[in-house]
Amino acid sequence: MYFEIDLKHTRDNKPSITELLEKGIILLDKPPRMSSHEASAFVKKILGIKKTGHTGTLDPNVSGLLIIGLNKATRFLEYLNTLDKKYVCLMRLYKKDVQLNELETIIKNNFLGKVLQEVPTMAAVKRQKRFRKIYYIKVLEIKHNSMTTDVLFEAHVEKGTYIRTLCEDIGKKFNCIGKMLELRRTAIGKFDEQNYRFITLHDLYYAHYRYVNLNDQEPLRNIIRPIEEFCEFEKLVIKNQFLKKAINGDLLYPEYFHNHEEIFKKDANWAELTSRLVPVGLLKVDEASLRKILTISTKK
Predict the structure, then answer these.
(1) pTM here?
(2) b/e map of 199-221 (b: 16 or more CB within 10 Å)?
(3) In CA terms, which of 2, 190, 237, 296 is 20 to 30 Å from 282?
C-alpha cells in the first residue's frame, strides 16, 4: 500500500527534471556483452548523478529490460525485484528431430507450476535447490539442424527462475544436452516491450545532451519515468494535521488516515507508504505489526 498527502504538488503537475533525476526510474534496454553493474554505472556517468542502482541482475550476455533507479529511487528497487519476469530464449537441444508435440508434452508435464531448480555454478547466490514458479512456456519456433534442434520460446516465470537451468533440465528429459544460446528479458511485472519503451544508452546520452546544451527537456522526460508509475499499492490518504509526523518519520497510526477503516478491513497488518519517494519511518497498525515503509506520494 501507499498513502497520499496534501502538498503543493498535484497529480496533474509534471515533476521537474530535478525531481526526476533525484527520484526517477529508467527502463533500460541492456545490450549483450555488458554487465548489469556496468550498465548502471554508464547511466550514472551520463546523467552526472550521485547514485544509481538496478534490480534483477542480467548476465553479461543477456539483453533486455534492466530497471535502473536514480538516487533516492534506489530505495524502491527491492519492491520491483519481487515482480515476475518474462523472457524470450533460444535453446539448443543436442538431439535431432525433436517434434513440437513431444516438446510441449515434456514442458506441460514437467516444467509448469512449481519447479525445483538448482542454482547455476556461476550464480552469485548460495548453490542449493529451490522451487520457482513457471506460469507458462510458449514455443514460438523450432528449427531442425543436422544433429541438433533449436527452439525459440517465451517464458513467464517467478523472480529468481534460472532460464539457463531450465534449458539444461529440458535437455535432461530428452536424454541430451540442453543449452541456452541467447536470452532476452522482455518484461518485469507490467513493464513489457509491447506497452513501454525500453531505452538504450545512446537514447539516454542524446536526451541528456539536448537537455544540457539546448535546454530541451522533452527527450529526457520521455525517458525518466516518475516513480509513482511503479507503485501498485493500495492508497491511504493522510490527514493534514498529521503530515508533520509523516515527514519527520514518526510512528503513524491508522487513525491518522481518512480511509483507514476501509483499508485495514482488507489488510490488518500495515501499509507500505509511497512525495516523490522519501523514506519516512514506520506505520504502526498494532503492537505486533511494524514494518519499514518506502515512500510518500503527493496529492492536492
Answers:
(1) 0.76
(2) bebebbebbbeebeeeeeeebbb
(3) 190
